[in-house]
Amino acid sequence: MIPLTALLPRPVSITPAPGTCRWPAPVEVRAADLPAEGYRLTIRPDGVLIEAPDAAGEFYARQTLRQLIGPDAFRAVPLRGTAELACGTVLDHPRFAWRGCLLDVARHFRTKAEVLRFADLLAAHKLNVLHLHLTDDQGWRVEIPAFPRLTEVGSWRRESMVGRHDGPERDGRPHGGFYTGDDLREIVAYAAARAITVVPEIDVPGHSRAAIAAYPELGGGRELDVWTSWGVSTDLLDPSESTVEFFRTVFDEVLDIFPSEVIGVGGDEAPGATPEHGKFTARMIEHLHARGRRAHAWDEVLDTGTALPAGTVIGAWRDETQVARAIEAGCQVVACPEQAVYLDHRQADGDDEPVPVGFVRTLADVHRWEPPPGVLGAQAQVWTEHLDSVRRVDYATFPRLCAFAEVVWSPPDRDHAEFHTRLAEHHLPRLDALGVEYRPLDGPRPWQRRPGVPGRPR
């Protein structure tokens, strides 16, 4: 029997009661006056009562019930028919409205099936935003019928940099893929059934070399290939009127596919950008707001000096000082600092970590991180330059995403030792049942290492 205290993320309150409930058991659902996405789960000897104010709250109550049934409930087909549930009441609701995870499918493409699986993993941790980074220098991943070369040319590159270095080494292996409009509509609907909003991102005016390779006029007529390097390209969009009209058409297609109120426009890492590039990004933001949506942009847009429409969402990634700047500018803020929640960064010092890039960010570091005050929420980032398979995504993401989920859902009085015990004894077996190839708590398995592949530690 799984104790009520084994839940992850940790709920607001737990009230044990005598007795047990034999599962399967009747489940009754009632409406309740609780905070948005909250629930009250009452387990009694004769059955289970779920009280929730909305569909998301009921979904999260069922996720909690699934955890209490045991790891078998996380398998595709349960292998055991019954379980004993501890009686009691779990009262719970999220701390933040935006509990997100970015998945970069531009650098290394993830198939539709893999994205659906990733949505399942977010849902199991009560995360509610899947931010899909769909375009970058190394690949364009969304079909735009008006501009077929975006996927015919821009969706694949001839090879990729091996690891992270300053030399010419490449793997000689073509890489590519893209989603049709219907693929993305399916992903959106699948995620919505799991209380997740999919926020798409089309990154402009930098991170646009794949688009320029497809349509050279977007870069002022320069003939370029889809980039085979990692890092920050200096190739920017030409901020001309024709480029503005091109991307208005692109974003209109994105709006037709994605019902999300928030749509990402990028705006980051544009070396050599001019004031005209800042105006270009502002015009894309204005276009989205004129269509009744809101833009998500990275915090560099605050440097352009251009006024942003009310309701613009800023992803504060460079450091937490950007949060105050964005709030002062009248924006909502999602905290996603590189120093805390970039899950592609290495998890330990030493040679065992595969392709060791960025800062050391341990499981404890993520769990102890506290989002700054005044934010809409927070988001973990899974950038995939060095994550070239779903196994590598699993390794980098879990179990650190479990810690992040607790940060954004649970009350702030966290005890890492207690979390570590809950994770090791109860939650890792759930991940095992789901088939997640996470990083073991004592270090990588032999096949999870990448000896000889260069990184770039910081």
TrEMBL record:
Tree of life domain: Bacteria
Active site: 269
UniProt protein name: beta-N-acetylhexosaminidase
GO biological process, one term: carbohydrate metabolic process
Keywords: Glycosidase, Hydrolase
Beta-hexosaminidase bacterial type N-terminal domain location: 28-92
Similarity field: Belongs to the glycosyl hydrolase 20 family.
Entry EC no(s): 3.2.1.52
Domain Glycoside hydrolase family 20 catalytic: start-end pairs: 96-411
Reaction(s) catalysed by this chain's protein: Hydrolysis of terminal non-reducing N-acetyl-D-hexosamine residues in N-acetyl-beta-D-hexosaminides
A single Gene Ontology CC term: membrane
Enzyme class, UniProt record, top EC level: hydrolase
PANTHER family in UniProt: BETA-HEXOSAMINIDASE (PTHR22600), BETA-N-ACETYLHEXOSAMINIDASE (PTHR22600:SF57)
SUPFAM superfamilies reported for this sequence: (Trans)glycosidases, beta-N-acetylhexosaminidase-like domain
Gene3D superfamilies, A to Z: Chitobiase/beta-hexosaminidase domain 2-like, Glycosidases
GO molecular function, one term: beta-N-acetylhexosaminidase activity
